[in-house]
Amino acid sequence: MCLGIPGKVVELRDDNGLAMGVVDFGGVRRDCCLAYVQDEVALGDYVIVHVGFAISRVDEAEARRTFEVLKEMGETADLDWLKEVADDSLAPGRGAA
Amino acid sequence: MTSIAQGLVCPAPIVTNDRVQLGHGSGGKMSAAIVAERFWPRLQNAALGQFADASVVAVGTSEIAVSTDTFVVQPIEFPGGNIGSLAVHGTLNDIAMMGARPICLTAGFVLEEGLSFEILDRVIDEMARASREAGVPVVAGDTKVVGRGSADGLYINTTGIGVLEGALRPSPARARAGDAIIVSGQIARHGMAVMAQREGLAFESAITSDSACLVPLVEKLRELGADVHVMRDPTRGGVASALNEIAQASNVGVEIDEGALPVPDDVRAACEMLGLDPLYVANEGVLVAFVEKTVAARALQLLRSHPLGAGAVQIGRVIAEHPKLVALRTGYGGTRVVDMLPGDQLPRIC
Amino acid sequence: MKFLSEYRDAHIARALIDRIKDESTRPWALMEVCGGQTHTIVRQGLDELLDGAIEMIHGPGCPVCVTPLEQIDKALAIAARPEVLFTSFGDMLRVPGSDCDLQQVRARGGDVRIVYSPLDALEFARRAPDKEVVFFAVGFETTAPANAMAVWRARELGVKNFSVLVSHVTVPPAITAIMEAPDNRVQGFLAAGHVCAVMGWTEYEPLAAKYDIPIVVTGFEPVDILEGILMAVRQLESGRHEVENQYVRSVRREGTPAARVTVDSVFELGDRKWRGIGEIPMSGLRLREEFAAYDAERKFGVADLTVEEPVECRAGDVLTGRLKPPKCAMFGTRCTPEHPLGALMVSAEGACAAYYHIGKYRAPEAAGVAS
Predict the structure, then answer these.
(1) S-S: B81 plus which of A84, B85, C4, C229, CB 3.0-4.6 Å?
(2) What is the pLDDT of residues A25-84, one digit of tens each?
(3) Chosen from A23, A28, A50 to mutate, greatest number of chain B CBs within 10 A
(4) B149 in contact with C at a CB cutoff of 8 Å?
(5) Residue B337's pLDDT is what?
């Protein structure tokens, strides 16, 4: 119910008492309200943005730690099923979209 | 105060659709329905019944392709062009998708009272540039003015005429099982470039419209002749709608691979933000081609030899299974149907 | 995109699927509450890839789907007024009310506009002082902080021509309602990641204890959902019933306290009808009395409008997992995406819309779709 995507805080400002900023989502930028995370967020941090509001800060350390575990799991995965779905005539795939 | 006991929700809700809605112009099912139910029964004729990008009409021993399109894009100026260049490219592309060589254009303008000459001149300049670059002159025109509040600034209608030559005779009904489905470049740029400026949804980005004349790419493919079965420029409704229309017209199944779809990173990010699927977003400088399997590699080579086609890739194939349906294979080996949307794709919060 | 694309990795997804299959001794029935999670599961065919190892029951997690019929009718009545500029999130525009939807109100002359953020709606109000701007404040706890801020800000800036039509629902009472239903089959939940990013997960601890069910706070990408499922399966296999957090990168136990402060200042809990399900006590948010001036229902005199839900649309049964969409008699016949009977066929996250497409592809006869 919550289309929230992670983005990087690239600008901070005060809009007449309201903490606002610019968040960069992979090359696309939008003005967002940072009022709810202003005490814990600095330039360069990542936040989850839902309808123009940062609703939480992304904990990069936690993300890295838990992703390492997942990555290892993935490296030993059986890849035969991937070969079944690949098609030789296609240009090199980008992986899952 | 008011109490409504039993609404008209069941068993038949909202069937008394007695007026035009925005969705009727979206390129989805509602667009098809309004043509099939209101226009076709009243205007029927063989040429119109081709339901292709342009209609083919015999003139003596020649065959000409005729297409008309009306441009109502908002805002009228956007990164990568304006309504003037769009109006030229759009109609030239419809002619070119039939394999025809465009020879001339007409342009009809509906101007809103109060539109600044500065803006109008920029639009005409872009139209002139696009026409010059394509080598196709605007040979007839018309101008009307309507009261303040109508026409959102300006609307343009363009009609194009082209001549069919040689063996290149693509048609939406000619797709065959085994055909390779190729797209000439990155998708979803135009729709997102326009959306970036749209009040209420605006965002900052470097996304530019891909609006371009596709005639040079079609000329590259001409050597493949009859092996080019279908060509279409996926404008409103996106690649998904175009594939559905072709699957319907040819009565074949279509299968595409999600991982093969060429979407620029920033377009993908913008789609993620608004909850939109790039497959349904408009393109103005990309063509989809269905070619005989044996010439697929050559087709890619030919397209890639032109700057406009540098990013050409195969995105899928035509299959005999599930005729009239378009299916997408995910990166995980799962599948889902890519249906035609009823109307416009809506940004979501979920 | 960082912190997004990595969680779509096919190798990791495959590894997780294999482990789920290996470690589950029976087909546990799990419910994902969030529409965004349903969207991912159905679009990426994750339930298909799990191949019967686990049964995923789709929950009532789409705020568009559960907005009660009468709130839609109130929206339509307000939007039709000439002095009103009605703003809304995009996905609400096609939800059918009793006799039309917002897109048709627009066709008949209503000023209806899509916005991405409630602050955009407030901006419209500031720029068009001669219009009464109304925002359709729909959503779960994830969206409440944004909607609350719009109202708070309107009052702070003295904007008088702005009001909100509120239709907020909260998740924990829905879980209770589902677990209390006599025919309930759900054995574990994937809690909505972004609801918990705001609220934290303390509200779910008593639920896990009371009903002996594992609740795993889960994200929205395929790897997140599969990892959440694996964590739930491991709990079920070992007889544990706890709240665990899969979505560690975005969720902390205490959530985002500053967001809740504003929500609590602007809204209070109240009873709320859920479309297709009926009333769930204390499951909704409404404006506090001191913000009455921003309540569109009062401003436009529609507060007393009540509507009976129709009998035929079985949205409620689908929303609570009792009914799979293809088994509904209306599915694919009288209720299709072109003329939907209920919100689940309209919304991109709606289980019915999702099944309609998948069913058409796999086996039209089996899915009950009239071809």
Answers:
(1) B85
(2) 998 999 999 999 999 999 999 999 999 999 999 999 999 999 999 998 888 766 555 555
(3) A28
(4) no
(5) 85
One-letter amino acid identity for C319?
L
Q: Does C55 score more than 60 pLDDT?
A: yes
d(CA B36, CA C93): 25
> CA of A47 to nearest chain C CA: how many angstroms apart?
8
- Cα distance between residue C57 and residue B135, in whole Å: 59
Q: What is the value of pTM for the model shown?
A: 0.86
DSSP single-letter state for residue C335: B
User: Which domains does chain B carry?
Assistant: 51-164 (3.30.1330.10), 180-337 (3.90.650.10)
What is this model's ipTM?
Answer: 0.89
End-to-end CA distance of chain B: 33
Q: What is the pLDDT of residues C279-326, one digit of tens each?
A: 889 999 999 999 999 999 999 999 988 887 766 666 667 666 676 776
Asked if A44 is an interface residue toward chain C (Cβ–Cβ < 8 A), one would say: no
Reading the block at residue C97, the tokens are: 């009310």
How far from chain centre, in Å, is Cα B296? 23
Q: Which residues of C touch B19 (CB under 8 A)?
A: 104, 107-108
Residue range C222-270, pLDDT digits in tens: 999 999 999 999 999 999 999 999 999 999 999 999 999 999 999 999 9
Whether residue A19 lies inside any domain: the answer is yes
Number of CB pairs < 8 Å for A and C? Answer: 159
Tell me if A65 is assigned to some domain: no
Could C39 and B350 be called an inter-chain contact, meaning their C-beta atoms sit closer than 8 Å?
yes
Query: Does residue C143 carry a pLDDT above 60?
Result: yes
Residue A82 is predicted with a pLDDT of 52
What is the least distance, in Å, from the CA of B70 to any CA of chain C? 20
Cross-chain CB nearest to B259 (options A50, A84, A93): A93
In the numeric block, the tokens 């058409």 are attached to: C360
Chain C residue nearest residue A16, CA to CA: C157
Residues found in chain A: 97
Cα A64 to its chain centre, rounded Å, is 13
Chain B residues in contact with C302 (beta carbon < 8 A) = 1-2
Let me know if residue A90 belongs to a domain. no
Residues on chain C touching A47 (C-beta within 8 angstroms): none
Using the Cα atoms of residue C183, residue C187, residue C192 and residue C196 in order, give the sign of their dihedral: positive
Cβ separation C198–A18 shorter than 8 A: no
pLDDT at C112 over 80: yes
In one-letter notation, the amino acid at residue B12 is A
Beta-carbon separation of B258 and A96 below 8 A: yes
**Which amino acid type is present at position B339?**
D
Go through the domains of chain C in sequence order and give each one's CATH number. Answer: 1-309 (3.40.50.11740), 315-361 (no CATH)
* Residue C27: predicted pLDDT: 95
Q: Give the closest residue to C46 by CA, choosing from C33, C25, C60, C32.
A: C32
Q: How far apart are CA C24 and CA B175, in angstroms?
A: 45
The number of domains in chain A is 1
